[in-house]
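Q: Hi! New to this. If I give you a protein sequence and the SMILES for flavin-adenine dinucleotide, can you show me the bound structure?
A: Yes, paste them in.
Q: Okay, here:
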Amino acid sequence: MPTLPAINAFVRIMTLVVDVDVAIVGSGFSGALCALALRKRGRNVALLERGRHPRFAIGESTTPLTNLLLEELADRYDLPQVRSFSKWGTWQRTRPDVACGLKRGFTFLFHRLAEGFTDDATHARQLLVAASPHDDVADTHWYRAAFDLALVEQAQAAGATYLDELRLEKVGDTGSGMAMEGVRGGERVEIQADFVIDASGPRGFLANALGMGSAPLRWLPATQGVFSHFENVGLWQDVAPPDANPPYPPDAAALHHVFPGGWIWVLRFNNGITSAGAALTDRVAAMVGAADGGPGWDRLLQSLPSVQEQFRDARPTMPFVYSPGVAFRCHQVVGERWALLPSAAGVIDPLLSTGFPLTLLGVARLLEVLETTAPGAERRIALDEYARTTQTELDVTEQLVAALYACMDDPPLFKRLALMYFAAASYSEAVRRLDRAHLAPGFLLNAHPRFGVEIRECAGLAAKVPTGEPRAALFSRIDRAIEPFDTAGLLDFSRRDWYPMRASDLIAGAPKLDASVSEVNRLLERCGLVV
Ligand SMILES: Cc1cc2nc3c(=O)[nH]c(=O)nc-3n(C[C@H](O)[C@H](O)[C@H](O)COP(=O)(O)OP(=O)(O)OC[C@H]3O[C@@H](n4cnc5c(N)ncnc54)[C@H](O)[C@@H]3O)c2cc1C
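A: Thanks. Here is the predicted structure of the protein with flavin-adenine dinucleotide bound:
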């Protein structure tokens, strides 16, 4: 019979003890980026992953703001290999081994159930908004299996301790730090850290371990998701050839098939794989039986004949994923020695690809808190501010997307309201690139004294899908709200809802950007935006 000290010694031998400054739970792109940045500041970091790379992850489509934020992070922390992922051209030149997709813009197509897609000369049932003037500086869709792996490899090379296939079981505040315990390959793991960043996504580690539960949605209807990766997905331009030269090839985009009660995304990668899936209100999800996965998807396509045509030869390359609740909100975002990234604190519907920019804004803010404050009162104040901003940005996104859901059966209203998103996003990008970020405070300008109020109020009004005089008043109000920030020709309705990216729009918008024409010209030159 072994003695008690002998058993303790045995248990000790079988325990891996990790003592770091910061432990990051979750090694998606956000966790890996945090690890990379913290290593650059000399912090000891552990990156803790439940699964194993390469692995499937949903959330793939970037935007100009996403890529600008990635660029800013890369510059701030001297991460040139990360920077090259911020544009299609540099990505293809430096990391052609990492799959991705070419995204030149946002394509919205408005369908009627059980009818083939048709449109008229005014493009009444479509909206195309270019995000870049040519491929080299274009955005991308991240093929997450490859992209996240590449970032994790970079984090490891930078000296982060990476533990995958780790089942974390406990977390607690010891009074001077955080202690976590888990199991990895039969071995016990103890992790001590001064601070824990939760990058484990929605309904993630801390939300469960601390029993935080989820907060109710205030504006969005409950939605369900069903999605997969496919091969042999047809081109939309073959199903519905454009009537003239569109601002970019409509398939080199985040393609949105919108219909009453939901929408389908189609994102093409350069490795023959296409990501596609649907977000559906509970009513539509029940109607098609989305919970059945593949058969539910097939039934949905039967009600959308033109989309069905696009998927005629498509074959899923992995089992369908069914998500009974796409959106998620959390009550609490920070504690004394921990913080959730925005992607762990909430997921709003992916309709406007808002997940990445919200997350990257949060990553930059949280890193700044950790860099500039010492544990104690000052850090608590900074963390509270981080939490407040995170919740406010999730709120405004939820309000806007909820209103768009209400208008899915009303393309003119949907499109007009969506212009508020495009105005805010393009203006924010331009002023950030001109070193005038203060002109566009908060995601979607939500902290701007005028635009912030207008976007919330217009979303609230649009959610009621007004008719008659209130509808006309709402359209005018949206136009008035957009005008001071429109540097993309969004209010030029002669463009028939096809918006190319034109240098001349940005130049004409120089006064709105508080910049001179020559500054805007230099910006266009520097960023390769002149065709
Ligand atoms: C259907 C859908 C589509 C979306 N599409 C878009 C889009 O097109 N564009 C966009 O900008 N955003 C999109 N989003 C949002 C986007 O998915 C997220 O913003 C993004 O994935 C967040 O990345 P992340 O690295 O923070 O977390 P995740 O990608 O969620 O990664 C979390 C990691 O943590 C690990 N993990 C989880 N639990 C634990 C644990 N207990 N212990 C250790 N590790 C753990 C997981 O295995 C995973 O590797 C979409 C969201 C959904 C639901």
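A: The chain has 19 helices and 20 strands. Let me know if you'd like me to explain how to read the tokens.
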